[in-house]
Amino acid sequence: MTELRDLQESLAAKTSRLELLEEQQRTALDVYRRLNLMLGRAGGDRRRTEEALDAVELSLRLETARAMGLQDDLEIIALIADGYSNQEISDRVHLSVHTVKDRVSRIIARLGARSRAAVASRAAEAGLLRGLH
After folding, report:
1. Nearest to 107, CA basis, from 131, 87, 86, 133
2. Less Cβ around it within 10 Å: N or C end of the chain?
3. Rounded Cα–Cα distance for residues 93 and 3 (Å)
4. Does the predicted TM-score (pTM) go above 0.70?
5. What is the pLDDT of residues 9-51, one digit of tens each?
6. How far apart are CA 88 and CA 30, in angstroms?
7. Cα atoms found within 13 Å of the Cα of residue 111, Cβ hemisphere only
8. 24 vs 60: CA distance, rounded Å
9. How many CB atoms neighbour CB 66 within 10 A?
């Protein structure tokens, strides 16, 4: 029975990750469409092109975070990835240690991670750390 439950949990986690990947693909196609439009407006101006690319990258990161239910946690995710403890994160983001622990637990669950190191890895894979380091 335990083995069946483990398999069901594994399948649920993989299904969740697949849904995330599908959402990311839809978002990427939308971003690509917007990028083409913005680059056309930049008209070869290097500065405007870089600004457009930065805006698209931010938009993609925020949309990915929103799809994962982590839009309010990007700063905490970046601090976890940088190796900060809950107390250090608490000091940086001006939240209680208890609140940080709750948010870290939620982040770990939403990313399907088993550790803080896995949070960094999964967040990087999902594109949540781009432009934050």
Report:
1. 86
2. N
3. 41
4. no
5. 888 877 877 887 787 777 777 777 777 777 777 677 778 778 8
6. 37
7. 31
8. 9
9. 13
